[in-house]
Amino acid sequence: MVASNFQKSLQLVLTEEGGNDDDPADHGGRTSRGITQREYDAWCKEQGLVTMDVWQATQKQIDQIYYQEYWLPVCDLLPSGVDYMYFDMAVNAGPYRAAVLLQRALGVTADGRIGPMTRQSISTADPRWLIDRFTVLKKEFYTNLHQPKFLRGWLNRANFVQNAALAMIGATA
To answer: Which of 53, 92, 131, 172 maximizes the CB count within 10 A of its CB?
Structure first.
């Protein structure tokens, strides 16, 4: 398990998330570097900070949200590559969905909780196999959303994440 993979994973996620966006077709609404306005407002209130336009959020704040809300507590329990893949899916579709897809890839009960049975299965899984299986399930998830405007981008992202995750373990697609 690699506790130090956050910064590398964060840079890859930020590459995929891009800058500022306010696409009316995107259910997330106004977003900056992958963080929605609603999420940013809630985080600021929790931190005792004044809320403002998410487009004005500092990079430090964005990084803290990613670490606190998406990296912790699961990613440091995962092998290198798998940690990044899980993190990316948690950012893109939420931590619960990332956990369910990881559990489905492992063939364990998909309850959205990374508990002892899931952790045991992770510890015995071949990381390359798990990355490949997780990618198949991510693509199925995206396809089943029936949002053709975003599908090509999501599938490209799944391929990018798979290749980067495999590179982290010294493998290639």
So the answer is: 131
Give the DSSP letter of residue 170. T
96-99: Cβ within 8 A, 24+ apart: 97/141, 98/74, 99/74
Q: Whole domain around residue 137: which residue ranges? A: 6-168
What CATH code is carried by the domain that includes residue 157?
1.20.141.10
Domain count, the chain: 1
With respect to residue 90, please indicate whether it lies within any of the assigned structural domains. Answer: yes
pLDDT digits (tens, 9 = 90+) for 138-152: 999 999 998 888 899
In a domain, residue 102? The reply is yes
The model's pTM: 0.91
Query: Does residue 96 lie within any of the structural domains?
Result: yes
ω into residue 73 within 30 of 0, thus cis? yes
φ/ψ bin of 108: left (φ > 0), alpha (ψ from -120 to 50), beta (otherwise): beta
Sign of CA dihedral 24, 29, 30, 32: negative
Tokens 């956990």: give the residue.
Answer: 99
pLDDT of 26 over the 90 cut: no
Cα-based angle 91, 108, 88 (whole degrees, multiple of 5): 15
Residue 1: band (very low, low, confident or very high) from pLDDT cuts 50, 70, 90: very low
